[in-house]
Structure formats: C-alpha cells, structure tokens
Hints:
- There is one protein chain.
- The chain contains six helices and 17 strands.
- By secondary structure, it is of the alpha+beta class.
- It folds into two domains: 4-124 and 263-277, Roll (Diaminopimelate Epimerase, Chain A, domain 1), CATH 3.10.310; 152-254, Diaminopimelate Epimerase, Chain A, domain 1 (Roll).
- The protein has a 17-stranded mixed beta sheet that branches.
- The longest helix has 15 residues, at 81-95.
- The chain is globular and about 50 Å long.
- The two termini are 17 Å apart.
- Mean pLDDT is 93; it is low at 1-9.
Amino acid sequence: MRRMADMATSHWPFMKMHGAGNDFVVIDGRNTPVDLTESLVRALADRHRGVGFDQLALITDGSDLTVTFYNADGSQSAACGNATRCIAAHELAQRAADHLDIHVTGRGMLNAVRNDDGSTAVNMGHPQLDWQDIPLAKDVDTLSLPIDGDPVGTGMGNPHCTFFVDDVSAIDLATIGPKIEHHTLFPERTNVQFAQVVGPDHIRMRVWERGTGVTLASGSSSCATAVAAARRGLTGHKVQIDLDGGTLHIDWRDDGVWMSGPTAHVFDGTLTAEFLQSL
C-alpha cells in the first residue's frame, strides 16, 4: 500500500448511498489503490469537515466482489446489511444481473437478488445464537440476558442487544445506547435496539450502532430484532420493521435471514488532494 503522502496526489472517487436513511460512503478500490486508516475514516465521517456517513464500505476484488465495512469511529464492522443492499443494487444494475455474491470480510459470502418489484434483497446469513458466537463475555441464556430490561442477545456478524419495550418513542436512546454498547457482557461492544411489537408481523424499532451512535436505520440490527422477536414468540419469522428512516422487511428462512428494503444512490463525488493532504 502507498503511504498517505503518496496518495495525497490522487483523487479518490466515492459514492454516497443510503438505505432507509442509514447512509454510507462507498469507495471502489478495485481500480484505485486505497489505504484506509482509522484517522482517515474518522475524517471522512465528519459531517461538517468531511463527507459524513454511518458506515464506510471499501470494495475490493473477490469472487464477485469483496466488501469491508468501517464505523464512523474508524473501527471495522463485520456486517452492514443496508450498505450491502445498496452496493448490491448498484452492481446488479451495472451488470444487468439478477443475482450477485458478495464476500463481506467479517461475515463471509452473502447472496443478493433483485426482487420482482425492482428492490434488492440480501441474505444476511444464519443468526448466531450461542453466547460464544455473538460473542458474550460469559455463558448466559442469550434469550434472556442478565441486563436490566431483559434483552435478547443475537449475532449477525455484529453483536446485538435487543430490548422489547411498550413505547420506543419514550426511550432516551442517546443516553442509554452508549451504556449498553460498552456493557461488560459484550467484549466487542454491541449494537443496541429498542423494539415495540405492533402486531404479529410488525415491529417499530430504534437503534444505537456501536462505533457510530444513533442511526435512522440498521440492516443487521433489523435482522437481529426479527430473530429475537421470533425466538420470544412475539412475532412470526416474517416481519415488517419500521425504523426512524424507513421500512425494512425481514424474513428468517431455513437458509438465513433475508432483508429487503429501499436503496438510494444519492451522488458521486471525489476526495481531493487538498482534503487528503490536510489529514
């Protein structure tokens, strides 16, 4: 990889995308060498001095393509469902294809398909339900974690902690979220969801993402919440999840957890040498 000083003479193209308000910067490194550091990711995430995003996705070569995700604080994220769908929608359109395999560095090979209505669905894989796979710090019942509020623990590549509450609008997410994210039961921190069951196939959810904070939506969190609700017997395996930024549809099938929802390619941009030299 080249050093930052060498790369400062380059101009890096990127795409800005979002899925239900969960927004991303996507950098295609298949043709442009890219060396991402934590400081560069944090600078790009700054919504005033950089571009701004919930997560950053770096595409590199793979069997179809390989994607690595980063949180706004510069740490790596093992999975990002909405970004995976956004990238899949773009690639499917570019290839005029109906199916795509995406290798996510922290999650493995994921399958994406174009739905009949033109939207994109991604199989986020099987949920991780054992304590050591999420992972948790000790052997506990993942369906009833020993945390006030009786949450459910689920792994979807990322760790998730889901609380079921009567009214999600009453939750002070900005205060409670970081406390649960850094709870000692989660050695790798955790995403935090507060979910309100509206009906047997309908959930209202709000989310705090580790390394980012409050977001308008989260794909892996939606998958984890759907799995947690089904395990608790609160819903069936196929649910609509309404988030602050839009609606996702989750279907927990025998072959994994499928997620469908809106995607948007907002604009293309270029990171300038002036910006890179300022880091």
